[in-house]
Amino acid sequence: MRDMSISCSHALAVLAFSGALMFAGGAPAQEPTPATPPQPEVTITITDSTANQMLSQAFAATVGVDQKSDAGYQKGYDIRGNPVREEYENARRGGSLTALVHGRFTVAVEVVELPAEELRTWFDRVDLAKLEALEPEKGQPLVRDTKLIPYVPDPPVGWMAQPATSLGSQGAGFQISQATRVYRKKK
């Protein structure tokens, strides 16, 4: 499941700091503002990395994993020969599905405020056959990040999306090429 320790630590530090200010008289107490309820959101990320081949053993080891509880589930399975890891948390109505496609690309789908079935629905919007056929330019270890953008699907009816963004980076002996798109349900 998602590690929230950094977010929680940051939030606690902010609360502690603001509480200390109010105790010391540094800031007046304010009326609490009502929280905006989370809206349905989906993020799809396609990544090509020089580290992805090392992930294939880890992904293969998760195939067949099936853990369920009242809190949610974690499972590993196979989609058309591609190992998949899926997890979902009931309380936050969110989760992720990540597949290693063609031993090369990771396709990650994250959902927030949506039922678990939406993970596979959104994953199926990525054209895996076309993605599998994608090759890096001659002499390059990765597919260029801007070449991944067309493989991140357009929003379906009833949804809107930001334009897909891309990132190419290297460090610690690895290179990464990535395209991401965030989708939000229309109100």
Brief write-up:
The protein is of the alpha+beta class and 187 residues long. It has helices at 5-24, 52-62, 117-123, 128-133, 145-148, and strands spanning 41-49, 66-68, 72-79, 82-89, 94-101, 105-112, 159-161, 165-171, 174-185.
Features of the shown structure:
187 residues, alpha+beta, 9-stranded antiparallel sheet, 35% strand
Give an overview in words.
- The protein has 187 residues and is of the alpha+beta class.
- It contains five helices and nine strands; from the N terminus they run H-E-H-E-E-E-E-E-H-H-H-E-E-E.
- It has helices at 5-24, 52-62, 117-123, 128-133, 145-148, and strands at 41-49, 66-68, 72-79, 82-89, 94-101, 105-112, 159-161, 165-171, 174-185.
- Strands 1, 2, 3, 4, 5, 6, 7, 8 and 9 form a nine-stranded antiparallel sheet that branches.
- Strand 5 (94-101) and strand 6 (105-112) form a beta hairpin.
- The longest helix has 20 residues, at 5-24.
- The protein is globular, with a radius of gyration of 20 Å.
- Mean pLDDT is 80; it is low at 1-29.
Helix content: 25-40%
Describe the main β-sheet briefly: 9 strands, antiparallel
Structural class, from helix and strand content?
alpha+beta
* Whole-angstrom Rg: 20 Å
Name the average pLDDT. 80
SSE topology:
Elements: H1 5-24, E1 41-49, H2 52-62, E2 66-68, E3 72-79, E4 82-89, E5 94-101, E6 105-112, H3 117-123, H4 128-133, H5 145-148, E7 159-161, E8 165-171, E9 174-185
Antiparallel strand pairs: 1-6, 1-9, 2-3, 3-4, 4-5, 5-6, 7-9, 8-9
